[in-house]
Amino acid sequence: MKELVLATRNIHKKREIESILSLEQIRILSLLDYPALGSIKEDGESFEENAIKKGLSTANFIHKLTLAEDSGLEVEALNWKPGIYSARFAGPEQDDRANIEKLLGLLKDIPWERRKARFRCVLALCAPKKVLEVVEGVCEGMITFAPQGKFGFGYDPVFFLPEYQKTFAELAPQVKNKISHRARAIEKIKGRIVQFMQSLDV
What we know:
- By secondary structure, this protein is α+β, with helices and mostly antiparallel strands.
- It is about 30% helix and about 25% strand.
- The chain has 5 helices and 8 strands.
- It starts with a strand and ends with a helix.
């Protein structure tokens, strides 16, 4: 069976990407399967730079086709922050709850109509020493005044989709996995993954 490595140790992202990809005859691995590969510093100035760095670093070390992702939340009232710093918005040792608390604190005096936000995801498909494809997916929404819902992870409890009248965390996973920024990016790259799996010896 052919193998695709996801350049992440985030088990939530692995499960979500694996579910969206739904590739038969392809085994999905992650960096949790390769503990010898140390931490990859995400010091790029954009989602694309970080995704490419993670993808190439992983593919060069493991010698397998690798899919790397960098994603985050951008809030208009905060000049599109936290952006690439979304995962460590409240500090490197903090968690999702702390990140949400900081975000809501910064927005506490911002009225509903100015709470526009978007999730952005960039995917980089890499082979050893090669960047094969880079795509982006975006999902537009609003930031709620308090967390709502029990599904998902990260900022999902405060990311509200007006067309569904629910946050990502209130949507069933199978619904979110059809409309999210990550789903939109994966849809663009899925065919290329299959194509390269068939043609590359990685």
